[in-house]
Amino acid sequence: MCGIIACVGNKPAAPMLVEGLKRLEYRGYDSAGVAVVADQGLEIARSVGRVSVLESLLGDDGPQGTLGIAHTRWATHGVPSEENAHPHSAMTKSGHTVALVHNGIIENYQTLRKYLAESGYDFTSQTDTEVLAALIAHLYDGDLEKAVQGALREVNGAYAIAVVSDAEPHTLICARKGSPLIIGIADQSYVVASDAAAIVAHTTQGITLDDYQVARLCAGPVDRHSTDGGPWSVEFRTTTIDNQRVTRDIRQLDLDLQQIELGVYPHYMLKEIMEQPEAIRTCLRGRIDERDGRVVLGGLSGYTRELVRAKRFLLAAQGTAYYAGLIGEYLLHDLAKVSARCEYASEFRYRNPTIEDDSVMLAVSQSGETADTLAALGEARERGALGIGVVNVVGSSIASETDAGVYLHVGPEIGVASTKAFLGQVLILTLIALHIGRRKYLSQETVAEYLHQIGRLPEMIERVLEQSDHVRQSVPQFVERDNWLFLGRGYNWPVAMEGALKLKEISYIHAEGMPAAEMKHGPIALIDEGMPVVFVAPQGSQYDKVISNIEEVRARGGRIIAVGTEGDEDIGSYADVVFRIPDVPEPLQPLLSVIPLQLLAYHAAVQRGHDVDKPRNLAKSVTVE
Ligand code: G6P
Fold first, then answer.
1. From ligand 1's centre to the CA of 381, what distance in Å?
2. In the chain, which stretches have pLDDT less than 70?
3. pTM, whole model, 2 decimals?
């Protein structure tokens, strides 16, 4: 949702912070700010808009100092404005300044704000974060770590924070509950960030904090009064908010710089679409034993009995992950012959769900931080369900809250519009369904045949991607139209929904996805001369019915964009444009049929002149409900 970067050490902070913000910009980009503890005190600069605006504001000689914090924001409380941008600051009784950057949400901020206002604080913003800054300043009595611990004992909600003060010019305090935070340990310095993308340029060693933990990171001259440098000392300690010492292991950060660089691509979205063959190879590594017809999911070992015995699967997710979950529902019915239902996590968590015995909740999420999905998982587990994560980001909140899980391993996804993670989610759900099915109804031969096809997916995806130019050249004839329909049946209606979502997200074209048959129950009224209607129509059990739907649209003047099977000559006679996918069994079709729709959305957005990687109003990860 928002991005945090902070550093303390022996290098100038401002350039490091700005560079880190650029790497985090995909998490939020409506305002940004930086605070550096400089010789003459704490210097804060904030601006509305992209990080580049902040960068120009700082100019070539930005604040000098080696301790600082920075933030790129996606507004929740209060409009995007300079006052509401982070860092927020407040004055201590001793006349020092405390500055803070924060991800998450302080739920009881109104009560705290009232209390602090009565104690004399003048608030300049509408944010919950400024209240936390004021509370820390209010409690400051010569020890920043203690003040942070004390303040965090008073707050309800979620936070990842980094705090500095000019009273302690070599100390950075950070803490987390619910929102992610990683502490990178570099040579003579520490770099803290809300995700590893901003750290790996500096170090691949780091520690993570658990909920309610605080880290005090100090880096400065051994002689704290020395003005000409001298020997340097770095030290950190970790505690709970109740000041109990805790030990955190230093571990290798699972990311390399190349994964988060654009390379030859103009946009992350295109890079991530194009790297899907490799992403799927990595996702599959070690997981399929084609010869024995066996799926190997290490993260679920120890839970096979529960999974096989489960009477009901619940899938909870939001956004693109929800559409992957809908496909999961079909896969579990079809391949594992078990009752399954996918719901929006935001609805599930509040509808007082009845959870029968032997239920399994699959929480599907790229980031592992989506607030509603995390809460739905908690609700289901509270009521006795086994919680399984289908998550991309290793060590994320959802991954930590599950009983077991399977990581997607598709690599970091930076583009706000999710692409390769969708493919990873659908693939993992396919493997889970086959894993259970094999132990119930599916023969070794049947599973072996599926796994054989799955093993060929990377190469088949490459074939679909070769049509990128064809998609690009087809787009101009439709791109000026502001209303599109996306239709499919069976496994391909969630794909149609995902195709419509992709187009909406980045090209701002209004698009609706639905089961093809549903069109006749209302949406057909929208079809007029030239309206683009996308049919996800590979050959399969409902192919003839989809063709009838295509005819209904054509009869009303709609123009047809079809995703069809390679070698299907018929579809060409019905459609204005056809994109092709290799012939695979129906349960595997979504893994291919979604790709032309990703390309369609991408090229449409580029041709409409939009910033594909930073679509308006969207954030990569929604950590508030
Ligand atoms: C946001 C993103 C979507 C994503 C959804 C769920 O809305 O913009 O791309 O699908 O959150 O995110 P998750 O990380 O849980 O998959």
1. 22
2. 1, 76-78, 224-230
3. 0.83
